[in-house]
Specification:
The complex is a heterodimer of chains A (329) and B (430). Chain A has 329 residues and is mostly helical. Helix content of chain A is 74%, strand content 3%. In chain A, strands 1-2 form a two-stranded antiparallel ribbon. In chain A, helix 4 packs parallel to helix 9. With 430 residues, chain B is of the alpha/beta class. Chain B is built from 19 helices and nine strands. In chain B, the strands form two sheets. Chain B has a five-stranded mixed β-sheet. In chain B, strands 6-7-5-8 form a four-stranded mixed β-sheet. In chain B, strand 1, helix 3 and strand 2 form a beta-alpha-beta unit. In chain B, helix 10 packs antiparallel against helix 18 and helix 18 runs antiparallel to helix 19. Chain B starts with a helix and ends with a helix. Classes of the chains: A mainly alpha (329), B alpha/beta (430). The interface between A and B is medium-sized, with 28 and 38 residues.
Chain lengths: 329, 430
């Protein structure tokens, strides 16, 4: 305290030059430096992320908001300022609400079975398998395939008249499913593509978390006479809760932004003749690149952002509550 | 070593600067200027196309003829990819090639921004193209934004073995006579075919038939001043009703959605007997129907002539070598070169002179029973009337219409009336 006071008093302009003063100043400067070091450096160390984020994340976000308040053509550029008209227009569109419904439906159909199945697969991979690395790498293979390629392949499988799935169904005497006309059927087909791609990825995350569980817990459980199923339900799953929360949130964000798979589900890419599988991102694409109306597309983009924040928050609160309850019992 | 050279350059430009007033400036453009017409300076031009334009050999040839020009060719795999690329870079104001190929259907939108494209009007190319081809790329005040490359005159492709099974004539002259020149006569022939109950349908898809019919309407969806008339235009409603009558009531349609996997598979399983085909469709049919015998082309098109597709070469004002790019575009779209592109990749020419060339007229197609396709499509191209007016909202409205047809014809989730109501709602929301 005293040192800093003296430094302040002398300052750069108080250039008195007796020896004692100089040595104090040197000491004070290096001390000041180390104080800065403690105070500022941590922020400097984490700043690259935030600088990068504000450049590539925050700026587009804010700018999209700016665009959404204007008439804005893709080629023609900025037009009149019209306030919240774009939002009002979009919220009044049946296609918008249809897209919201489709997005949530596809998201639920893909995320819920995905987390459950990924947990099971991870449990199997965690066991003592022969050629363990081979199987573990194997589940990641679908993730490496480009989503559009997955779409094209599954599109062939799910073709209405000459697709493999319907051929098999008919061979065993069932009615063919109208994959491209029934809303629910189309959602199922798309969810299958998503699950195919993301299952292995999530399974590996679960597997990594499982391996961090201390083995003596399992030993204790075995001594207590717990079987494999019991161990899975009472030891593995509860100890994986933080990872489950992580996977749930990331798959929420990814699931609500789903685009590639439904986009390539037919040729025109608008989500079917009756918009059976048009998701919100596809609606943004239709408004922006189909109708060239960037204002409205940006409005939908912002609504989607708010929706994701809202759902991610509820998701977080819910899973945390479940986790807390688990601790109490 | 470096310094003196730099110094020399510096003093030279300084000298030029001082001389600019007295005449050095007058000489300068010739040696360094993009505006120089002779263009002896080395120039690198970029050209962006999509699918197959058949330009590979032509580009080599041009480089041999003009040793100072280096050409970089970028090829997009699909038209959608090229269109997204073009519009985003137009919006960004940079990044386009010196020559950008565009499709006929994008014109309506691009013509709204003529200042983004160099006016290519030139006495040297006047009268080069079929009237409707050049007119489609000309704005109201006479700004020509693109040089026509190929075109898509339409004929009727048919599967003669299915015709034979149903007891209809099979040689292309009698088929043309039977199909007649109106849509009604085309549908009547279809009723006869389906009446024989041999199994297959008459045409592939309500959407593709509507596509051809609406391309013959003068102003389908919009007026020149931008007002949307799609909902009130009786011609649109009539066409819609007529197509759906034929496809559902008369059951002439195979109920496939064009370009879907089922449609592609439909060629192999011979689900339909006819399909409306522009010249470029022959390659598509040959690919999809590989191994199927009996496909042929009839020199006729219901309702007069029709054009579907075809492209243009534009020079964006972003280009730094506009004069050189214009010269290259003009050369590539000259009749002689277009004939070479046609022999390379089958892109059917839109140039008047090319249509009477021997190389074109002697062209036959073995897959289509050795049909004289060159001669047939040259005649079909001459039959094309005025090109219909397509306004800026054409794409969106046409998408909505195709979906309305698909709901009834393919999905069968709506009847014609309720699907029309949904179409009206979709048009209103644009």
């Amino acid at each position: 305290m005293a040192v800093t006071d003296r430094v302040r008093l002398q300052g750069p302009t108080g250039g008195s030059t007796d020896d004692g003063g100089r040595s104090v100043r040197r000491l004070a400067f290096s001390q000041r430096l180390s104080r800065w070091d403690v105070k500022v450096s941590p922020y400097l160390y984490i700043s690259p992320f935030f600088l990068l984020f504000s450049l590539t994340g925050l700026f587009p976000l804010v700018y999209t908001g700016w665009v959404s308040l204007h008439n804005w053509n893709l080629i023609g550029g900025q037009g009149k300022f019209i306030g919240f008209d774009n939002f009002a227009f979009v919220l009044g569109q049946p296609y918008f609400w249809n897209a919201v419904g489709n997005t949530v439906s596809i998201f639920l159909l893909s995320s819920v079975p995905q987390v459950v199945l990924a947990l099971l697969i991870a449990a199997v991979l965690d066991a003592n398998l022969r050629a363990r690395t081979f199987w573990r790498m194997g589940v990641l293979v679908p993730f490496v395939v480009a989503p559009v390629a997955v779409g094209l392949i599954f599109n062939n499988l799910f073709a209405d008249q000459f697709g493999l799935v319907n051929n098999v169904l008919q061979a065993v005497g069932l009615d063919p499913v109208r994959w491209h006309s029934d809303q629910l059927a189309s959602h199922l087909a798309i969810a299958t593509m998503v699950n195919f791609r993301w299952l292995g990825y999530n399974a590996l995350i679960f597997l990594a978390a499982m391996q961090a569980i201390p083995r003596d817990v399992y030993e204790a459980a075995t001594i207590d006479g717990a079987g494999r199923l019991r161990q899975f339900l009472s030891v593995t799953v509860p100890m994986l809760r933080p990872t489950v929360i992580f996977v749930a949130i990331t798959s929420t964000i990814g699931g609500l932004q789903i685009f590639d798979e439904p986009r390539v589900f037919d040729q025109s890419g608008l989500g079917g003749a009756d918009r059976q599988w048009q998701t919100l991102t596809m609606y943004i694409w239709e408004l922006g690149w189909g109708q060239r109306n960037f204002g409205r597309a940006s409005a939908v983009a912002w609504l989607l952002f708010l929706m994701i924040v809202l759902i991610a928050l509820t998701n977080f609160l819910l899973t945390r509550r479940i986790a807390n309850q688990g601790d109490r019992s | 070593m470096k310094f003196p050279r730099k110094l020399a350059a510096l003093s030279a430009s300084a000298a030029c600067l001082t001389l600019a007033l007295s005449g050095c400036g007058a000489d300068a453009p010739k040696s360094s200027g993009p505006s120089g017409e002779t263009g002896k300076e080395p120039v690198t031009l970029t050209i962006a196309t999509f699918n197959e334009f058949g330009y590979e050999d032509l580009i080599k040839e041009y480089q041999t003829l003009n040793p100072n020009v280096t050409i970089q060719h970028k090829k997009a795999a699909t038209t959608n990819e090229a269109r997204d690329n073009l519009t985003t870079r137009l919006a960004a104001g940079s990044g386009l090639s010196d020559i950008e190929a565009i499709e006929v259907d994008w014109l309506s939108e691009l013509k709204q921004y003529p200042d983004k494209f160099v006016d290519l009007k030139d006495p040297g190319v006047e009268g080069r193209w079929l009237d409707w081809k050049a007119k489609a790329a000309t704005t109201d005040d006479g700004h020509l934004i693109g040089y026509g490359t190929d075109s898509g005159p339409e004929a009727v492709c048919y599967n003669s073995s299915l015709f034979k099974a149903a007891g209809l004539p099979t040689d292309r002259e009698s088929v043309a006579k039977m199909l007649g020149t109106t849509w009604d006569s085309y549908f009547d022939a279809g009723k006869k075919f389906v009446g024989a109950k041999t199994g297959p349908a008459w045409f592939d898809s309500a959407g593709s038939v509507y596509q051809a019919m609406s391309n013959q309407l003068d102003k389908a969806y919009e007026k020149e001043d931008g007002t949307v008339i799609a909902a009130d235009n009786p011609a649109v409603k009539d066409t819609y009703t007529k197509v759906l009558n034929a496809s559902t009531k008369e059951n002439l349609s195979a109920h496939l959605s064009q370009w879907s996997n089922d449609w592609v598979a439909g060629f192999q399983s011979q689900k339909f007997a006819t399909t409306l085909c522009p010249g470029w469709m022959l390659g598509v049919i040959e690919g999809n129907a590989a191994g199927v015998k009996g496909w042929d082309v009839a020199n006729v098109f219901p309702g007069g002539g029709g054009n579907w597709g075809g492209s243009y070469l534009t020079v964006p004002t972003q280009s730094k070598h506009q004069a050189e790019a214009k010269k290259l575009a003009a050369w590539l779209t000259a009749p002689e070169q277009q004939i070479k592109a046609f022999t390379a990749k089958g892109t059917f020419p839109s140039q008047v002179q090319a249509l009477s060339s021997d190389a074109l007229l002697s062209q036959t197609n073995t897959f289509f029973n050795n049909a004289p396709t060159g001669k047939i499509f040259a005649e079909r191209a001459k039959a094309v009337g005025a090109s219909p007016f397509k306004g800026p909202k054409f794409f969106a409205i046409n998408d909505a219409m195709q979906q309305a047809l698909t709901r009834v014809d393919v999905d069968k989730s709506d009847d014609a009336a309720s699907s029309w109501t949904k179409f009206l709602a979709a048009v209103k929301s644009l």
